[in-house]
Amino acid sequence: MALRAFRSVVALAGGVGGAKLADGLVRSMNKPSTLTVIVNTGDDFRHYGLAISPDLDTVMYTLGGVANVVNGWGLEGDTTQMLAMLRRYGDDAWFGLGDKDVATHLLRTQWLAAGVSLTEITRRLSAGLGVPATILPMADQPAPTMIHTVERGVLPFQEYFVRYHWQPTIARLEFLNADVHPTPEAEAALAAADLILICPSNPLLSVEPILNIGYRALLEKRKARCIAVSPLIDGQAVKGPAAKIMAELDMEPSANGVARYYGDLIDGIVIQTGESVDMARALNADILMRDIPDRARLAYEILAWAGKWA
Length: 310
Prior knowledge:
This protein has helices spanning 15-28, 54-63, 81-88, 101-113, 118-129, 157-163, 184-192, 203-220, 242-248, 255-262, 292-308, and strands spanning 9-13, 35-39, 45-47, 50-52, 134-137, 145-149, 153-156, 170-175, 195-198, 225-229, 232-233, 236-237, 268-272, 282-285. By secondary structure, it is an alpha/beta fold. Helix 1 (15-28) runs parallel beside helix 2 (54-63), helix 1 (15-28) crosses helix 11 (292-308) and helix 4 (101-113) runs antiparallel to helix 5. The longest helix has 18 residues, at 203-220. The mean pLDDT is 96.
């Protein structure tokens, strides 16, 4: 079946799940160049003086065809000699940095110091990897997510997620985003879109930081239909702590809970075969992306479903 030719598709993404669906879209769309991926930067941080954007890099490496296919993040075939040397010096070295991966962070740090915007930096890096779609950071200004935990107090995102393996109990999330706003490029992409997708990323850690800086208002006045893809199957996250965090924050950890969370921001939701939600428009599909063909299949099914709507 021929897909409807959407003029412009925008995906909101963060993490491995978002990167996988974005890759599926690139592989199934008639013109991948009409895809724009707006990526969470709430988990960006400085480490060893380097400016690191984990979600941007995960999406970029995946769409550039160089991501580690086992982890879903990092570079395929990368080594960790630098980390080994840091540990020999007695450093904790808790955050994984591959040797080739450091090149990305070095250039980003250098360009930021020279006054180049994160949007332009992402364009340059994506071009170097031959990424066929447009990748945009959600903002050019820092907007860190802070995690208030029961056991360890307030933690920067990466310490919560990587250093402590997302095990501390979350009491609340704090978004340090005063005076942070969507970029002109992202606003223009959303205004031109005739389809908006919220990828199967963690609703609270990956999508909420995007919505919280002005994208919620942009989606509320959208003209295009907006479809979310559930990151949960049978109440469990495919990867990461989405279900755990939803339960800790008194949300129903289910596809229905995801649908309720997004509420009027979405016109439909894609959920696992056999599940149901209290929403008029829902597509049941196998949403588990085990491999690259699965990514393309799921993306194709979503685009075909969206193309049938009047």
